[in-house]
Design goal:
The protein is an alpha+beta fold and about 90 residues long. The chain has a domain of about 60 residues. Helices cover about 20% and strands about 20% of the residues. Strands 1-2-3 form a three-stranded mixed sheet, covered by helices on one side. Strand 2 and strand 3 form a beta hairpin.
Length: about 90
């Protein structure tokens, strides 16, 4: 599942599919829900084993939320680079 997501989002500047079950995804033993704060990024995590899969999507609602999406769409409509005025 992780590989399918990584292939689908390959080349997307504001979407990161994180390594599967990598220890750096929870360095303190707990998932950091604030890890995408102050960015326009959406981090996708896949955790699990053969019996269970957990997908987590982490984003900053103010950065990647409606306001960030509006700026990104406006940039595209004006022919600008989609990341103009947005934090990576």
């Amino acid at each position: 599942m992780r590989d399918l997501l990584a292939e689908f989002y390959a080349g997307e500047r504001f979407v990161r599919v994180m390594p599967f079950d990598d220890a750096s995804n929870a360095p303190t033993g707990y998932f950091d829900p604030l890890g995408a704060n102050d960015t326009n990024r959406n981090d996708i995590f896949v955790f699990g084993n053969d019996a269970h899969v957990v997908l987590i999507s982490r984003l900053d609602n103010l950065g990647k939320g409606a306001s960030g999406a509006a700026v990104q769409n406006m940039n595209i409509m004006l022919g600008l680079d989609e990341g103009t005025a947005l934090a990576a």
